[in-house]
């Protein structure tokens, strides 16, 4: 097997900076532990940025869009055309993620990794189509090995753009009708779980629809199941899920902290962490999605989400909502006075 870029090592946190950050938290003018999880977040951000003055000012959001052949099986409440329509909506600034990016002064990067039809040139949308959507994975592999490599590389390039532009935090989002079905299939494949545990309503299916979706996933698993991360991704994944996987791996190699969104983003993380366990160091989990399978994935990954707001939109929106928590953790670590500086007596 030839060497691929994703075989390169994940950056390690600096133990010395981490120890100094723990020491600093112990000196800050407050009862020890009184800021709860914000303390650990501050310490981790300090270690990631190799400074006792961590900052979350430059935020980079990349939304990857792609279509899914499996939608012909009736797994979505929305028609496939919505994927392309939403890419146009991102370009016009009308989606939730546009509002959130503007709110935090974040850079929003939209990448078409594979809509079913080619799109016209759109402002702020990068055309990186690796194919006209995936194949229907009930009958054949979702993508070829070459398409998988291309889609991973699209993510790699997105993380590079973030790093070159000085990003202190990377958020990956996705848009793709049918992608909760694809994500559930990949997760079931890697975790050896039945589809009923990970298939959920997605864009709003009723109980009958969810049941049909689970059966579709089971049919696909009977043919395509693999416990090898990249093989599961190639056979059952989506181009945007692969791009997210590539972006997360590259962020770990470059030392860019990642704020993980909901169910689909977390499935991409599952693939990436199975491939490179060291990546876990660079990940913060933004929220627990209302998509039922997400909680199970978070348990498997031993992830502690920051928020639980019943969100299930995708686009990176759940992660964008959690940005202020990381900002506050960094600010407290950076700006609070120590007991000595404040002239306050310690316990």
* Tally of structural domains: 2
> Which whole number gives the mean pLDDT?
97
- Which range does the strand content fall in? 5-15%
Give me the CATH fold name of the largest domain.
Rossmann fold
Largest sheet: 6 strands, parallel
User: What's the architecture of the largest domain in CATH terms?
Assistant: 3-Layer(aba) Sandwich
Helicity level, as a percent range? 40-55%
- CATH class placement of the largest domain: Alpha Beta
| Spatial arrangement of strands, main beta sheet | 3-2-1-4-5-6
Low-confidence stretches: none
Number of DSSP helical runs:
14
Mind explaining what this structure looks like?
- The chain is an alpha/beta fold.
- The protein has two domains: 5-54 and 331-342, Nicotinate-nucleotide-dimethylbenzimidazole phosphoribosyltransferase (CobT), small domain (5,6-Dimethylbenzimidazole Phosphoribosyltransferase, Chain: A, domain 1), CATH 1.10.1610; 59-326, Nicotinate-nucleotide-dimethylbenzimidazole phosphoribosyltransferase (CobT), large domain (Rossmann fold, 3-Layer(aba) Sandwich).
- It has 14 helices and six strands.
- It has helices spanning 15-27, 37-49, 81-92, 96-104, 145-164, 179-191, 195-198, 207-224, 229-236, 239-254, 263-275, 293-300, 317-335, 339-342; strands at residues 59-66, 107-114, 125-127, 169-175, 258-260, 283-285.
- The chain has a six-stranded parallel beta sheet with strand order 3-2-1-4-5-6, with helices on both faces.
- Strand 5, helix 11 (263-275) and strand 6 (283-285) form a beta-alpha-beta unit.
- The protein is globular and about 70 Å long.
- The relative contact order is 0.17.
């Amino acid at each position: 097997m030839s060497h691929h870029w994703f075989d390169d090592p994940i950056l390690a946190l600096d133990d010395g900076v981490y120890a100094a950050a723990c020491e600093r938290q112990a000196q800050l003018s407050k009862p020890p532990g009184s800021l709860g999880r914000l303390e650990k977040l501050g310490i981790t951000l300090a270690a990631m940025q190799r400074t006792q003055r961590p900052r979350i000012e430059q935020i980079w959001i990349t939304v990857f869009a792609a279509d899914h052949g499996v939608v012909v099986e009736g797994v979505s409440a929305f028609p496939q055309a919505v994927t392309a329509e939403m890419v146009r909506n991102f370009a016009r600034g009308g989606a939730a993620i546009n509002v959130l990016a503007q709110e935090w002064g974040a850079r929003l990067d939209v990448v078409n990794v594979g809509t079913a039809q080619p799109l016209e040139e759109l402002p702020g949308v990068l055309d990186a189509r690796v194919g006209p959507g995936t194949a229907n994975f009930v009958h054949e592999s979702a993508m070829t090995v070459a398409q998988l490599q291309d889609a991973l590389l699209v993510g790699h390039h997105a993380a590079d753009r973030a790093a070159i532009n000085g990003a202190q935090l990377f958020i990956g989002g996705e848009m793709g009708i049918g992608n909760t079905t694809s994500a559930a299939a990949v997760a079931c494949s890697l975790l050896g779980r039945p589809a009923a545990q990970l298939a959920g309503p997605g864009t709003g299916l009723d109980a009958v629809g969810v049941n049909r979706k689970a059966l579709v996933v089971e049919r696909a698993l009977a043919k395509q199941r693999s416990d090898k991360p990249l093989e599961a991704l190639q056979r059952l994944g989506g181009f945007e899920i692969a791009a997210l996987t590539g972006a997360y791996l590259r962020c770990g190699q470059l030392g860019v902290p990642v704020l993980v969104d909901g169910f689909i983003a977390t499935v991409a993380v599952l693939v990436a962490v199975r491939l490179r366990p060291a990546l876990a160091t660079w990940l913060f989990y933004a929220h627990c999605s209302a998509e039922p399978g997400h909680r199970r994935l978070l348990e498997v990954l031993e992830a502690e989400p920051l928020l639980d707001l019943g969100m299930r939109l995708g686009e990176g929106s759940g992660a964008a909502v959690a940005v202020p928590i990381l900002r506050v953790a960094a600010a407290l670590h950076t700006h609070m006075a120590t007991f000595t500086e404040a002239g306050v007596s310690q316990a």
